[in-house]
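no rush on this but wanted to send it before i forget. what follows is a protein written twice so to speak, once as letters and once as structure tokens for the fold. mainly i need to know what kind of three dimensional shape the backbone takes. thanks a lot i owe you, the record is right below.
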Amino acid sequence: MRTSRWVGAGTRLALLVILAVAVLWAPPPPSWLPTGTRTADPAGADGATPAVGRVWPVGVRPRVLRGWEPPATVYARGHRGVDLAAAPGAPVRAVAAGRVRFAGRVAGRGVVSVELAGTGDPPLRTTYEPVRASVTEGDEVTAGEVIGAVEPTGSHCTVPCVHWGLLKADTYLDPLTLLPPWLLRRGPSRLLPVLGAPAPA
């Protein structure tokens, strides 16, 4: 009798531990993004930017050095994009399928711009800089395809980075809104042990 009581208490304790761990390891809210980054995009045609992105432009989950800070007016100060930490020479990838609209140099910096397929008229357009392009204007690209490499100079960051922008016509939007929630989560996914289950044969 005493043994069964301890077994019941142990099972309840194990369930409480699993529940607590699941709550603590739940995906963090977007508040982990730097101050000024917005995850809602009221400037989109239908009130939201479609989450057509399938990969980050650099790395797997790069550090966001500076978020999107929309200016109060067209000519006001702000940050019209997102800065992502990236090592010089690292590959830069198209976040979604589309067509290269521009690949060249602007004010001494390498810039690649891609119009995203299926995002309306005018289409959404992503920009990446400073990037040494490996594509040319008019090329069709797929999500995750390498479009260039991070240049060692030309960045406005204090450490090597890629400035990633998003526009609809001449309106700047938050590029992070292109990514689905599972890509924005920090940290790797973890499988929790099932206590009391028999080991696999």
The chain has two helices and eleven strands. The first helix runs from residue 2 to 24.
